[in-house]
Write a structure and sequence with these properties.
- The chain is an alpha/beta fold.
- It contains 10 helices and 10 strands.
- It has a 6-stranded mixed β-sheet, with helices on both faces.
- Helix 8 (227-234) packs across helix 9 (246-256).
- The two termini are 39 Å apart.
- The structure holds adenosine-5'-diphosphate (ADP) and magnesium ion (MG).
- Residues 46-47, 87, 168 line the site of magnesium ion (MG).
Amino acid sequence: MEIRVDNLNHFFKRGTPFERQALRDISFLIPPEKVLGVLGPIGSGKTTLARTLNGLVQPTSGKISLGGVDIKNFGPDLRKKIALVFQQPEKQLFEETVFRDISFPLRSSYDFSEEDIELRVGNACATVGLYIDEIRNRSPFELSAGEKRRVAIAGALVNDPEVLILDEPAADLDPPSLLILNNIVESFKKKKGHTVIIVSHDMDSFLPVLDLLLVMHNGKMAAFGAVREVCSELRNDPELRQILPSLGLLVEELRARNIHMPDGDFDLQLIKDRIIDVLRTGRSFT
Ligand SMILES: Nc1ncnc2c1ncn2[C@@H]1O[C@H](COP(=O)(O)OP(=O)(O)O)[C@@H](O)[C@H]1O
Ligand SMILES: [Mg+2]
């Protein structure tokens, strides 16, 4: 579903000496079935934006709509539609066992039979590469950081949300887990109309799955658009170029030197072949 954000502003501790504006006039539109990366230095407002999108933070002003409907109209159902996996997953886990934790949103709605719950929890676990029978009775607090992250994601998927927001999901994942995560993002996007928002201060590992990129800086939008456009726009920004996805920046640097680079996905193999070709032949325009 389309997500539209209009003129979002948020102040923390407004009217006190500690007042801080975390969001400054943020407006963007995410068409359905897209993956948006929200990139920015620490403290730039990424988490605040993620929390306003799922209703945990009420913005000081501005409007967010999902499929043309103001999210204020969804009431408590909003969290079922827009699921957020916290930057620190342990803040999200609270039950005694992994099974109870993941099934919590289903058990609290009374809409699901025991069999339904069992099936949905099993599927959500399988999606994140966990086997429910191995961990169902373990305490979520005894898991490794990466396992906690996966349990928190399973808990977000179990409700079959339309939008999945992952706040700094790479923090405690190893390379194989990052691949699993990218597969989850891809398959979630392909379900009709589903949207994924990945918030991170480092987008390198998510570059292959991103359609759009929003760069935040001091609560403002520094750039928004296709990854290629954003990398091209911020290529010469002395501060923000340092946080751009490195492959995206490399491709734009080469293009700026009139070296033709293949369009489309950031495929490391294709880019490598192209650079070797240019170095060997000295030909840059093809
Ligand atoms: N609960 C809060 N109270 C006061 N200030 C906050 C609160 N949460 C975040 N901030 C401030 O808002 C700004 C943006 O924070 P945040 O959205 O967490 O940034 P990011 O996720 O990009 O690191 C920071 O300056 C931060 O200190
Ligand atoms: Mg954050």
